[in-house]
Design brief:
The protein has helices at residues 2-22, 335-340, and strands spanning 27-28, 36-37, 44-45, 50-52, 54-55, 59-63, 67-69, 82-85, 97-100, 109-114, 118-121, 125-127, 140-143, 145-147, 155-159, 167-169, 173-178, 182-185, 189-191, 203-206, 208-209, 218-220, 228-229, 233-238, 243-245, 249-251, 263-265, 276-279, 282-285, 299-306, 311-318. By secondary structure, it is mainly beta. Its main location: secreted.
Amino acid sequence: MERVKTLFLLSSFLLLTTVASQHSNVCSRPQLEGNIELTGIQRFFSPGVELPLACQQGYTPVSGPRKIVCTVSGEWTKTKFKCMPKECPYPDVVVNGDMFYEDTVYQSVINYTCNKGYILTGASSAVCQANGTWSTSAPLCIPVACGLAPIPQFGMVIYERRVRGKTTDYGLTATYACLPPYALFGKATAECTLQGTWTETPECRVVTCPPPDSIERGYMSESERREFSYMERVKYDCQGDYVIEGNTEIVCQENGRWSDMPSCKAPCTVGIERGRILYKGRKMWIEDFQPNTVLHKEVVSVYCMNKARKCGYALSTQCIDGALKIPECFEEPSSTDYNLHSNSLPSEIEQC
């Protein structure tokens, strides 16, 4: 048995020695780079054998002989054969969209996107194929569209621009209004969104306000004690020389309350007995100022003396709801000075 093992090992050694000697001047299968490929699976080649070269799928030969030869030294001849990737045509422009890519050669990828407000229809990417064509054509970017804005019951909708047909474009806004006596509850505007739907639609609800209050020293246009509908108005005015302050009318608001009510402000009298005043651009003696009435917020001036410079000057004061404060600098003259020496009063001498 031991002898059989020895003979087997000896035979294997002789066989390997013979094969090695047979291939000492042959060429091994070449390892080629640059996307060059060889046909077949043969591992050893005899001197003089020519081996044709080809490009892998998706590549095109551009230079150098398309074969190599096994030499007697067991080496292959050199080659400048090159394979370049195939080019795909420049991609089509995507209207209302964009595309992103680094190259247009074999295996390059284009990614497509649409601008805001548009939906991509088609493939979102394309690959340059081995035959020099793109795997798919450029997609379309279709505008996002909504239907017409929902109209609330007892309401109406006004679009920011004219709408044709039954579709509206992304970003279009609509303004809502209600028919009196209904009031709007919710946002007054809606918009066509990227999802192709409108934002929330408001409601129209009945709103009433209680009978309005009267104002002191004034009267209103409605004497009937009743409830008023949304947006109904009531006017106010004042009696005699009283002046209305605030809006002359109030409106029933969507919250069921009236807008701010006005008030009637009282007139003033100029509280001096002797002297001159300046009122509405006219200079007059106080006894000639008839009736002695200055309306709310009106301005009247009295005259004061600048004793250091011996000149007179007018100082204004304003009527505020029945109160008119006489400036402290005013000194009311005596009856004698007023009647006999009026030309020496601050209003009559040289003005500062």
